[in-house]
Amino acid sequence: MTVGDQKQADSSHADIGIVCALRIELAAFLDRCDRVKKYTGGEFVFRGGRCGEIRVAVVESGIGFARARRATQALIEAHSPTWIIASGFSGALMPAMKVGDIVVANSLVDTHGQKLVVDLKMTANPEKGLYVGRIITTDELIRTVQKKQELAERYGAAAVDLESLAVAQVCREEKKRFLTVRTISDDMLSDLPPEVISLVGATGSMRFGAVIGAIWERPASIKKLWELRESAHVAADHLATFLGGVVAQLHEACTLRIHPAEPPVAQSE
């Protein structure tokens, strides 16, 4: 490798890589970063910036397991981060959880029998909105309180999402240290409106035309969709605050060489 190649490799390296499904999930966090730049790499949108002096790269995967796997691989190839965080929104599987509460996974499962344990030493503090526990990754959006109750009882999970296990699997394969940090965007007080299913496009992105269509077809849905939007902003703000602290701690740990390079955090159960 020439000196020029080395400089280019160094400039593309990120200390922390973050995988999210949609921009809204990390918009508040990115607003707190400096020198944020956006670019498209292949099928994914990347944003890079600095959280203090820490270089952070965020890839927007779109919704779903397969897209999250490909986005994580693309993130590793483009930026070779030391740590990777699966982050964004999740649904509550515990009645006490509120919108904006934080869930950090100590294990990940799906409905097909796949399991990963996360080597995590963190103490939960539910009174302050911090939960540590199992997150289940499903194939589809879990919209109803009844379905959430069934998942909680069957899998002993604290929260549900659509991507975390996929990110963890790639990190295990690539021997990258891994963490899942999620925020609750929908609690267990009521069902999500059925229109949310139609809002996701084929690429895993939000279809804004579908929002207008949903309101046109069922005007009563506008109140629910507006509440969902407000909850998303609350959740994103809480996530931004917590994630900023996590990024700083992970970077300090790497700097002080507290964690060995191996084994990776995500391990088979």
Topology:
Elements: H1 3-12, E1 16-20, H2 23-31, E2 34-41, E3 44-51, E4 54-60, H3 65-79, E5 83-92, E6 102-110, E7 115-118, E8 130-137, H4 145-155, E9 159-161, H5 164-174, E10 177-186, H6 208-217, H7 221-255, E11 266-268
Parallel strand pairs: 1-4, 1-5, 5-10, 6-8, 8-9
Antiparallel strand pairs: 2-3, 3-4, 5-9, 6-7, 6-10, 7-11
Helix pairs in contact: 2-7, 3-5
Distance between the termini: 39 Å
Strand portion: 25-35%
Low-confidence runs: 1-9, 201-205, 207-216, 258-265
| Helical coverage, percent range | 25-40%
Biggest sheet record: 5 strands, mixed, barrel
Corresponding CATH superfamily: Nucleoside phosphorylase domain
Order of helices and strands: HEHEEEHEEEEHEHEHHE
Describe the global form. Answer: globular
Description:
There is one protein chain. The protein has helices at residues 3-12, 23-31, 65-79, 145-155, 164-174, 208-217, 221-255; strands at residues 16-20, 34-41, 44-51, 54-60, 83-92, 102-110, 115-118, 130-137, 159-161, 177-186, 266-268. It is an alpha/beta fold. The protein has a single domain, classed as Rossmann fold. The termini are far apart.
